[in-house]
Write a structure and sequence with these properties.
By secondary structure, this protein is α/β, with parallel strands linked by helices. The protein folds into 3 domains: 2-264, Nitrilase/N-carbamoyl-D-aminoacid amidohydrolase (4-Layer Sandwich); 271-470 and 514-518, HUPs (Rossmann fold); 471-513. It has 16 helices and 19 strands. It has helices at residues 15-31, 58-72, 167-174, 191-206, 267-285, 299-312, 329-342, 352-366, 373-394, 404-409, 430-440, 449-453, 473-485, 490-497, 501-513, 515-518; strands at 2-7, 36-38, 78-85, 95-103, 106-112, 137-139, 142-148, 178-183, 210-214, 216-219, 222-225, 229-231, 237-240, 247-252, 291-294, 317-321, 345-348, 397-400, 422-423. It has a 6-stranded mixed beta sheet. The protein has a 6-stranded mixed beta sheet with strand order 6-7-8-9-12-13, covered by helices on one side. The longest helix has 22 residues, at 373-394. It is elongated and about 85 Å long.
Length: 546
Amino acid sequence: MKVGIAQINAVIGDFPGNAKRILAAYRECIEKGADVVITPELSLTGYPPRDLVFKSQFVPKCLQALDYLADEAKVIPLIVGYVDHNTSANPGKPFRNAAAVLFDGKIQSLQHKTLLPTYDVFDEWRYFQPSEACMPIEICGQRIGLTICEDIWTEEYLQRPLYERNPVQELVEQGVDAIFNLSASPYALHKPARRQSMIADVASEAGVPVIYCNAIGAQDQLIFDGHSLVASAKGEIVAHFPGFEEAVRVLDLENLEAAEVNEPRVDEEQLFRALVLGLRDYTTKCGFSKVCLGLSGGIDSALTAAIAAEALGPENVHGLTMPSEYSSSGSVSDSIQLAEALGIRCDTVPIKDVFEEVKKSMAPIFGETEEDVTEENMQARIRAVFLMALSNKSGAMLLTTGNKSELAVGYCTIYGDMCGGLAVLSDLPKVDVYSVSRWLNRESEIIPWATIDKPPSAELRPDQKDSDSLPPYDILDSILELYVEEQISATDIIEKHGYDEETVRWIQRRVDLNEYKRQQAAPGLRVTTKAFGMGRRYPIVQRFID
């Protein structure tokens, strides 16, 4: 059997567009000699559709598009992921996460998802009823075990055992020639390698080939990286699809040893390509073709600009440098040098006069009080006014440039530098901002080395440095990884990991106090195992201290 694997980029709710993408891949696979074609999980609806499924016409329109695909699938079978009604007479959720085998104008067979994740960014129990049974499906004379994403994740690759059933084991016990998996597994750093190990283990234990077709593209905060896989019955990875791009290939299950293997890329390149894909898809799927951002001469805005130029083309990126009386000379010159290297537009709009007018207007109210963080925040919010004016006038989406370290401890100004439509680096710790920037400069200077080498500063008061307010970033980020991503208590971080108690308690308090800021922040692109946003649900009002 020759299997066509269609690693495609769906758009949530775009049934005509998704059907067109599926058919294009189907026809390409036919030309390459495929006997069957597999697409990702919910390839027809896009993943995750979330509460769109409750709209009265969502599932009917999905099924209408499925009928259209069935009419077109007349040469070889086509396996499509979609949302189905739950027609069972038993109580349960109204819908099913389903995969249909389409051929000769109709649904030949179907399988519902068995294991429904409800952790981290997933909430499938809110919508779907699980499958009651896993049965092999005959395709081209072969007995195929059809599984959907979580169905193939084994206990050792989850944080703890979550399910009483094992769909792969159920299928193998009934006798199958291969396991097919339709997946929409979102990206996080190191996850592609983890998936690769898991698929190899599943194939080895089952003793049959495993074909794993993962989604590609970004949906809101989630980035789907592709990296589809094929493993032989011996547990050897014999095909590794590229990451962060669409790909269509045909693999012969009788000749898997001859397939080409592509190894995963290094961390910095993966992060860069993930953020490029995330920015491109979020922007274009929301109907924008251009972006704008503030260029401070600092490393965060520089990397954000580089990602935007790669994602949308430099002609579609507009930067503003907005110096104040506290800005260093490099604030402007480094921004201009960056813009020239990237080929983007950069304009200079000083804020000094506006800042003085705002202070003058507030003087009767403020009286003789000394200047403090209030005046620092004024500058950030004046810059936000200028940037939003540019966004409104030009139709460009405004990008925020803050990193995860700053967002975690609230080292950012709400309604100021947090203002925008997408927070590109909000899940990238400061140490990773530096490592990705240095990787970007591996062959030639794109981000000015002066930007990378100088001490980071918000430049909102005389001689200001980040180190005046924050612990060193390497220490801050290490503690944040333990506290935010691994959810280890401050007490355990101090006692078991040996960090300074005063530093840990300060970070803990800042993280907890600034939940209100993060819940008003622009959506950010997820690249770690625990991003601020949809996968982290903490109350704003709370008094728990650990």
